[in-house]
Amino acid sequence: MPNDPMAEIKASFFIECDELLESLQDALTEIDEGAHDGETINIVFRAVHSIKGGAGAFGLDALVGFAHRYETVMDEIRSGRLDISPEAVKLFFQAADLLADEVHAARDGLPEPDGAEACLKDLEALLGTDRMIEEEATEEVSDFQPMGLSLDLDLDFDLSPDPSGSATSDPHLLRFKPHAELYASGNEPLHLLRALAELGPLQIAADLAAIPSLDAIDPEAAYLSWEMQIDPVIEESAILDVFDFVEDVCDLEFGSQETSADRVTSLASRPLNDPSFAQPDDIPSPDFDPLLTALSTARDLPESVATAPAAPEMPQEDAPTPPAATAPPRAPSTPVAEPGATVRVDLERIDRLVNLVGELVINQAMLAQSVTEAGLPPNSPVMTGLEAFMMLTRDIQDSVMMIRAQPVKPLFQRMARIVREASSAVGKEVKLRTEGEATEVDKTVIERLADPLTHMIRNAVDHGLEAPETRVAAGKPREGVITLSAQHRSGRVVIEVTDDGGGINRKKVFAKAVEKGLVPADAQLSDTEIDNLLFLPGFSTADQVSALSGRGVGMDVVRSSIQALGGRISISSAPGSGTSFSISLPLTLAVLDGMVVTVADETLVVPLSAILETATLTSEDIRALGPETHVIHVRGAFVPLYDLGAELGYRAPKSNYEGGIVLLTAQENGERSALVVDTILEQRQVVIKGLQQSYGHIPGVAAATILGDGQIALILDPADLVHNASGRTRIPDLTLAG
Amino acid sequence: MTAPTKTQTVSSEIELLSFRLGKEEYSVDIMSVREIRGWTRATPLPHAPDFVRGVINLRGTVLPVVDLSVRLGMQPVAGDARNVIIVVQTGAQTAGLLVDAVSDILALPASELQPPPDLAADTAQRYISALTIVEGRMIRVLDLMAVLPDDDAEAA
Questions:
Q1: Between chains, do B45 and A713 touch, taking CB under 8 Å as contact?
Q2: Of the residues A586, A619, A643, which one is the last residue of a structural domain?
Q3: How far is A697 from chain B (nearest CA, A)?
Q4: Can you tell me the ipTM of this complex?
Q5: Is the pTM higher than 0.95?
């Protein structure tokens, strides 16, 4: 039981970390842009500090160590002892990236990221060695009040004066008395004591005085307590960490053997969660023995007053015993991120709501259809009511979809990091500008956009921008600019990656394509067509395979992942002034814009994103290719013809396709194909229903949807269909391969 | 015909939903039956085995429907208003069984179920887990796990 709330708190700590890391990035970006004011620097400092504080409470030593050293340098900046230089800012960014890695490593239990130590060394080199150690000590003391017990566990600093104020020569004196709840919740004092012993030398004495005679023993009660003398080199916070999980269910009393004057004050500073403190008239705590009680330092007193529990001997929800270990480091986090009032909701619940709204949309369509079939006059109350209902449904659907939507900001921040890393890898100076960070897109879309976007950004740095010398020679600033923008445009999200580089060298691209045999040498291609050659599989214009790109993953992969999201990507380029990639994405993955068609009396939905154009076939268009196949001739190119009815096994290939309707579709690899359908019914949004779970994968079918009449229609996956297609359009054959 | 015996099921007693396929009588354990629906046209699935009639809309979920008659090696169920779809669930899988008509709910002691004799010549043999006699009629108890399409293996 006690572990569950901890796991929950820990999870929310990591969520908080992400928010802090985000504000850290924001503030660093501001500093980079020249905002050297105290508040911005404070935000950076507080973000790092809060992460450190929280990490300390969970015993994430590696994270604490890193954050502490980062924070130390930041403090120098904050106090004005160190100037902000561009190099320093660069290092801060690098350190912030590594801090994010550290946080994620701690969250997912991964090994520590590489390069952390090197980065910290560089960072600390800013201070100069002597100064660092000296300032370190001052910082600890001056910073003591807000930090409480979250002092670092770094052994490097053990020799610095103990800031807690207790004399270092005296051992820590600790009295540990478990409550019955500690045993009931499955904790074992022996393990805790062993953990203490691992910290350093200690002496333990068990106090058996409270054990009653055998006939009076309550088998479920707790009678034992222990007194310990712990080596003073061990930090108090490290000791408290051991009791982190049981602090609610035991009495822990700290103190050190000092003067007799202190002994007197011990009467005032009762154990921290001694109930009698808050309720002086209450029954005295049964086991309290002032002589055995170790002394609390005067410093603990106000805290114990503030957090003394109201009910005696009850497990405390707010962990009062060692409050300084968790509470104070959290406090500074409040002013950092203020995202307005939010509720954290389980994603599953949202998905259920999204599904239900999908049902509602379908039901509304069904209702509308039956009302129409009933032949009611258009101005009847039912019809007006239905119209209002339809508008409401639309509103609800939009609002529910917005719940899943998230701003693209975190994604863009990741890209900022990619730019930093990529530019330093190829020795270019690059600045990333972002626009429309608040634009919201479906969570899944954002997640699945990260990889293609990373690739595009790397490409822009590596291939898009020229080397600094070339830029200067061309009369441009040394520093290249990559602009990453997001905006809503007509129900879709458009994300653009623009560089101010040299533009696409079309001659080179064409030559490369010819060399790779992708196009014939005598082909006459328009500029746009040449630009689109970049999307062909296996195309790479880089003369040398650099460390950055040229890993065999090309723009074709980018395009296929965008298409998998129901999106499209386009390219435009102006020689000398840059290249722009534009990605257009649907707002959500729960609904899809589709063309509703019929084939052999079955209704099918073809995703609109896959359709280039529709056409009616004439006899001149159709040419027989092999004995069983046809091609059609459209816009100077031969496109293979597929009969949807035959490919799906609904009917035999027709004898004549003249006058038939074809959908011209583009495949992921740029190949086009023509799909024969019988009629085109309409173009509409459909709610996507997975087939995978209830049935399994069907070749050529992406999912299903429910139409207005309650019937299920299959949503085609044209690329998969063509991939598995037989292409038979001439000889009747019912046993299709598939 | 017997009236449905609606006695409380005790541990040794099981209840079976019996239904008709052609002239034969089959049954399934009532605990695996979720609901019984009237006939609706199913949307055929491409490249599906012949016994998969297609998918229907079960209050917003896509439900595969098995033509039990074809599955057991008989003529397809006609598919008209008299036919019904029994929605069954085994484990995580939910599917509809298209049958001619539902006839009865039978309660009988588990001890009256007998394993079917080993006669391998029949397709139906694989899908029957037990036999019993109720008032002179032989009732076959279906093995649902064997009847339902097993996800990808048969779909692909």
A1: no
A2: A586
A3: 6
A4: 0.80
A5: no
Residue A452 resides in a domain:
yes
Is residue B6 assigned to a domain? no
Residue A195 has pLDDT above 70, yes or no: yes
The residues that bridge with A674 in the sheet, in sequence order, are A641, A664
Find the residue in A nearest to B52 (Cα).
A695
Angle between helices A38-57 and A86-108 in degrees, nearest 10: 20
Q: Are A201 and A263 in the same domain?
A: yes
Contact of A325 with A148, CB cutoff 8 Å? yes
The answer to whether A207 and A226 have CB atoms below 8 angstroms apart is yes
A192 and A283 in one domain? yes
Averaged pLDDT score across all residues of chain A: 74
CATH of the domain at B67: 2.40.50.180
Distance set, CA A433 to CA A51, A97, A585 (Å):
27, 18, 21
A257 and A371 share one domain = no
Of A359, A649, A714, the CB nearest to B43: A714
Of B43, B47, B149, the CB nearest to A712: B43
The yes-or-no verdict on residue A125 having pLDDT over 50 is yes
Are residue A535 and residue A618 in the same domain, yes or no? Answer: no
In this predicted structure, what is the pLDDT of residue A274? 45
CA dist., res. A573 & res. A566, Å (int): 24
Do residues B43 and A711 make contact, with C-beta atoms less than 8 angstroms apart?
Answer: yes
| Nearest CA-CA distance, residue B87 and chain A, Å | 13
- Residue with the bigger pLDDT between A3 and A266: it is A3
Number of H helices, E strands in chain B: 3, 10
Q: What is the pLDDT of residues B85-125, one digit of tens each?
A: 999 998 888 899 999 989 889 888 888 888 887 766 666 67
Distances from the Cα of A241 to the Cα of A363, A694, B37, angstroms: 56, 49, 61
- Measured distance CA(A63)–CA(A204) in Å, rounded: 31
Q: What are the pLDDT digits (tens) for A141-191?
A: 333 334 444 444 444 444 444 444 444 456 777 788 888 877 777 777 877
Q: How many domains does chain A have?
A: 5
Domain that holds residue A361: 347-405
When divided into structural domains, chain B yields a total of 1
Residue A684 to residue A68: CA distance in whole angstroms? 56
Question: Which structural domain range is residue B62 located in?
Answer: 13-155
Q: Examine the domain organization and report whether A401 and A424 are in the same domain.
A: no
Q: Is there a single domain that holds both residue A400 and residue A414? A: no
- Whether residues A700 and B46 touch (CB distance < 8 A) is answered with yes
**Residue A698 and residue B44: Cβ atoms within 8 Å?**
no
Mean pLDDT, residues A114-128 taken together: 76
